[in-house]
Write a structure and sequence with these properties.
7-stranded mixed β-sheet; N-utilizing Substance Protein B Homolog, Chain A; alpha/beta; 15% strand; 15 helices
Length: 409
């Protein structure tokens, strides 16, 4: 059943543009997989997406008409090929027979026969000791883009294999105690980089964790927490979080500025900001400390007063390439022109936001991307030379990659 679940997920990712993580979670729940079967489905989905160009090359060499392959057959073959090439614990006959059965059930005997022929050929050439991938494999343009943005050494670490499933980041209001850490389970790990951060795995719904209802922590990826640290908000300051989305960074900033500070969350989409209110209340942050405003920053400041903020964070829309280990389907969605296209928007947003910063204040641009265009390439967005920092797994933890640019006004 785990292979059928993996096939359904890869099919939806490829044909519907679905995101792998929520689709996989929904399929695991719907199919009521055991923890062991859920683990195998997770390993296959993420593993296959992380090396998709390699799998497709192997399959295309063995398909008569690869460009017109039925999408369900393609998804099933990706599942079978990944097991044959990379999972030593899966017997070849299991990888082949279950893939063939899935194709027969969904597409009939003809395509089941194609699957059988293709996978049996791959099985004959299976490595003596199949091993999980040691590097993520992406399209050549994407590989070159990341290497230009991070440099060869960091890019190698960024594309390197990571433990599955991806970790869940938690942010505590204060550095977590030993008791709080122990309550999260044996795999909970205190972050050495984010002072209030904890990394957990295999915990399921975080709302069921001890302390959630009491507001002891928020769910926030560790790299995102490091961005908030780089903003450097101090007690009593007035801070703007632009392109705030659901307000995860907003509320972290509100905790940083304390009872005498104030944070304004701005986003184009009011429905995103509406979700901030319930989370603010759960975390016990006073309503007076957080304000929300729907504003289209590509058109102006929407009534925000120039020079009224000590610090401004522009958490700009970006390619999201920094999250590609958690969202490997991005390699299917993005094209070579996307980093430059989004960098143009990021320049516009920074130029719009700059007047909000008081003299002596700080403007921070953060992009969750490893692309040069969305990092060092944005240094000319304003007068003055910003500091440019790349946050990522080379710092020692499994974190998303960010570029952070800081202008001191």
């Amino acid at each position: 059943m785990s292979r059928l679940v993996a096939t359904r997920v890869l099919f939806r990712v490829a044909t519907d543009g679905a995101f792998a993580t929520p689709t996989l979670d929904a399929e695991i729940r719907r199919s009521r997989l055991s923890s062991q079967d859920a683990g195998l489905a997770t390993e296959i989905v993420y593993g296959a997406l992380r090396v998709l160009p390699e799998l497709d090359r192997v399959l295309d060499e063995r398909l008569k008409t690869p460009k017109t392959t039925d999408p369900w057959l393609r998804a099933a073959l990706r599942v079978g090929a990944y097991q044959l090439l990379h999972l030593s614990r899966v017997p070849p006959h299991a990888a082949v027979s279950e893939t063939v059965s899935a194709c027969r059930a969904e597409r009939g005997p003809k395509l089941a026969g194609v699957a059988n022929a293709v996978l049996r050929r791959i099985a004959k050439e299976r490595p003596a000791e199949p091993t999980p991938p040691t590097q993520m494999i992406v399209p050549p343009w994407l590989d070159a883009c990341v290497r230009r943005g991070l440099g060869a050494e960091r890019a190698d670490v960024f594309f390197g294999a990571r433990r599955l499933p991806p970790p869940l980041g938690l942010r505590f209001a204060a550095p977590p105690t030993d008791e709080q850490l122990a309550a999260l389970g044996p795999d909970a790990k205190r972050s050495e980089l984010a002072p209030r951060g904890v990394e957990v795995r295999g915990v399921g719904d975080p709302r069921a964790l001890p302390g959630y209802e009491e507001g002891a922590f928020a769910v926030q990826e560790l790299g995102s927490q490091l961005v908030v640290e780089r903003v450097g908000a101090q007690p009593g300051e007035r801070v703007a979080d632009l392109c705030a989305g659901h307000g995860t960074k907003t509320l972290a900033l509100a905790q940083a500025v304390g009872p005498t500070g104030h944070v304004v969350a701005v986003d184009l989409y009011e429905e995103k900001l509406d979700r901030l209110e319930s989370e603010r209340a759960r975390l016990g942050i006073e309503a007076s400390r957080v304000e929300t405003r729907p504003v289209d920053l590509s058109r102006g400041l929407g009534g925000l007063e120039p020079g009224s903020f000590d610090r401004v964070l522009v958490d700009a829309p970006c390619t999201g390439l920094g999250t590609i280990h958690r969202r490997p389907e991005l390699a299917l969605r993005l094209g070579p022109s996307d980093p430059a296209r989004l960098a143009d928007l990021q320049r516009t947003l920074v130029a719009t936001a700059a007047p909000l910063v008081r003299p002596g204040g700080v403007l921070v641009l953060a992009t969750c991307s490893a692309a040069y265009e969305e990092g060092p390439g944005l240094a000319d967005a304003l007068d003055g030379t910003p500091t440019v920092e790349a946050i990522g797994p080379w710092l020692g933890e499994d974190v998303d990659a960010y570029h952070v640019l800081v202008w001191r006004r």
